[in-house]
Amino acid sequence: MHFSIPDTEEFSDDNGANYMGYNIHVNGVFHCTVRYKQLHNLHEQLKKEFGANNLPVFPPKKLLPLSSSQLEERRAHLEKYIQSIGQNPQLVSSDLFNGFLLSAQQETCCETNQEVPLEVFLMNGFQISLKVLTTERSDQVLEKVCQQINLASEYVYYFSLFLIKREDDGDITVLRKLQDFESPYISQKSIQGVHRVVLRKSYWDPSYDLELLQDKVALNLLYVQTVADVERGWVLIGTDTQQQLASLQSRGAKREYLELARTLKYYGFLQFRPCVCDYPRPGSRVLNGDASASGCSSKTQPKPKLELSFEYLMSKDRLQWITIASEQAILMSVCLQAMVDELLLKKTGTPRKQPGDRARKGSWSYMKRDGSSQLISHSNSVDSISSNSDSANGEVKFTPKTESTTSMRKLSEKLSSVTLKSSNKPIPEPFVENDAFEGIGDDDL
Fold first, then answer.
1. Where is the composition biased (Low complexity) (predicted)?
2. Quick one: DSSP state of residue 149?
3. What is the per-residue pLDDT for 422?
4. Is the domain of 42 the same as that of 183?
């Protein structure tokens, strides 16, 4: 997870006193604005739950008003603190940390806890209409969607909710996967342009397809996404294969369609926007990535804004640094992290997350900007600031649209330090290198 606090904003409270708000960005996207004392309160609660020795150092309080240089220093220290939290799998996945970020998003966007309609789409334009609470986070909405379409619980977390943007030329861009610390309703509402919340498969190893093909609903979801990818040209097919796929599609032979599609080049890849790379030479146009290592494909980029650097296994015992310049560099980094996490989960035999795993007893508090605190209770169905709120059952309707272990932790932590920098200005702060693949064998890659 990539956290940053790139800037600050000055506010005034009800008494006219000024205070500084710190804008937290997650994976390159603005998420919330919080005060120093809110982060300090979070730190104190994390200390109680995980122990002070397991937390990074928090910037100390100051008795006197801060100068401009001191405010900038505090911003940098807070950014370093939250980045350190983001590199600790135990902390970043905790209910406390995720609950804080969700509550901060609600407060920043001035959202109250209420029931609202939310449309979730499939890749072919089919629409799922349901009711959600503004306070429901992504995994809760995902479970609600999957429950309403009768997807077996063991297959729920093979899928995720994504934000997708429709471009002016009619094409679509997968912006990002919605995380558990955000509300899909708020996240979609807070960005400009035509965006949709879309249900897509959320794994990289195509061998998982074989498990999902045993379930009628899961098979249908894979089929719908694959047909959409083929129609958009995201999967490379020849004329003969195209005719075979069309014939299978016309006969409703979904399993046979998928079995053929799984043999095609770039099946299961995620399409990125145009980008350039320094391999095999600087300025090289990236056409397609190797599915076994990158699981993505992309095209040329005229004016890249960010760079992603990582080590690539060129051959046995030979790793080489690769730098990709793209405005989606952070998304690429997140995808690399997800691929390594998935590889290690499979290697260690760790079971995939299941609905109900989130359940936790107890509660914690969220300090608002004005200093007041609200009790955050956790239940099986909803994280809620209001203890009296009830989650309504969603109603789903499909409407056709015309538009068509320790080792594991170490490796995951390594990848969270993938180099990300601006490609058009000097790096203001030092960065750490990435050696995520050093502990993975040739057979894995």
1. 376-391
2. T
3. 54
4. no
pLDDT-based confidence at 44, cuts 50/70/90?
very high
**Type of residue numbered 68:** S
- pTM to 2 decimal places: 0.81
Half-sphere exposure of 397 (CA within 13 A, CB side): 9
For 132, phi and psi rounded to 5 degrees? -135, 165
Cβ-Cβ contacts under 8 Å for 84 (sequence gap 6 or more): 56
Q: Work out the burial of residue 156: count CB atoms within 10 Å of its CB; fewer than 13 is exposed, 13-18 middle, 19 or more buried.
A: buried
Residue 47: Cβ within 10 Å count: 14
Residue 65's domain comprises: 1-108
Q: How many CB atoms lie within 10 A of CB 376?
A: 20
CATH code for the domain of 211 = 3.10.20.90
Number of Cβ within a 10 Å radius of residue 49: 15
Strand partners, 122: none
My answer on whether 88 and 190 are in the same domain is no
Total residue length of the chain: 445
Query: What is the identity of the amino acid at 49?
Result: E
Distance between CA 129 and CA 142 in Å, rounded?
Answer: 13
SS3 content of the chain, % helix, strand, coil (to 5): 35, 25, 40
| Listed residues 330, 348, 366: the one ending a domain | 348
Residue 428 corresponds to which tokens in the numbers above? 């203001």
CATH of the domain at 55: 3.30.1520.10
CA dihedral 105, 108, 110, 113 (to 10 degrees): 20
What is the three-class DSSP state of 174? strand
The answer to whether the beta carbons of residues 306 and 421 sit under 8 Å apart is yes
Q: Are 332 and 295 in contact (CB under 8 A)?
A: no
Among 32, 99, 78, CA closest to 362: 99
Q: Judge contact between 27 and 100, C-beta under 8 A.
A: no
Per-residue pLDDT of 81-131, as tens digits, reads: 999 999 998 999 899 999 999 999 999 999 999 999 999 999 989 999 999
Say how many domains are in the chain: 2
**Is 369 among the domain residues?**
no
3-state secondary structure 83-131: HHHHCCHHHHCCHHHHHHHHHHHHHHCCCCCCEEEEEEECCCCCEEEEE
**Cα gap 267→229, rounded to integer Å:** 8
Report how far residue 185's alpha carbon sits from residue 369's, in angstroms, rounded to the nearest whole number. 22
